């Protein structure tokens, strides 16, 4: 966990700040925006998912993460409104609002939850201006039209698909390694990819891989993609997996283009940043389409959205 920025900031009047939250499977980032839109503090805590609300342990984890986030943010000021994007969010936010409101000492009505992809889109485009392909633990193509309606391609979850995301990359690597072990036991010893993966999961015995893939949250599994990317320059199988990830992400952009017409495409998320092969393959698969890679600053966009949603604290230009 990385704590919030330690640098002192000018104090803001109580309730004048907008708090933005971008909660993903790997980590949750937050930011505070002052009137005018300047980001005055930011930090990160453990990952969150709406899917965690389905189990008692998961709900306890969500509450603990909210408490840690509030502890960090309140050091810098009291927000007047909160915009929170949560991966896996399906629209049921009453309990989430109440828990977060208790930690921030706010009226729950001043906290708004939405899909993490809605705020990620706003970090790259104004409504109707383009398509966002986001690759984190999972993957999704997103389009917010000029009427504010959210449209998706993919993003159905790592069990079903989410091709090109970190979990998918990790799963593809483990699948390849263990299929080869079925055919030629011990072949992992001559594979840089397998050596890196087994080192990451704890050992070469199947029990380590089984516990890793089935016994952890999806965000933790997705981090195995780091080991895959680290071997891509010396292992052709790892390179092929990353190229395949690029094609999977390009497919999301093509699906949206086919439905809504040609528009620029932005790709964002930590999985897309693992290795240049991913975005290079996307670009080659999307000829004639303007593709840019953008840094993930959805928590900044969410903080400014929180300000803009508060009639008592309107956004003004800086």
UniProtKB/TrEMBL annotation:
UniProt entry keywords in alphabetical sequence: Kinase, Transferase
Domain of life: Bacteria
Protein name, UniProt field: N-acetylglucosamine kinase
Originating organism: Massilia orientalis
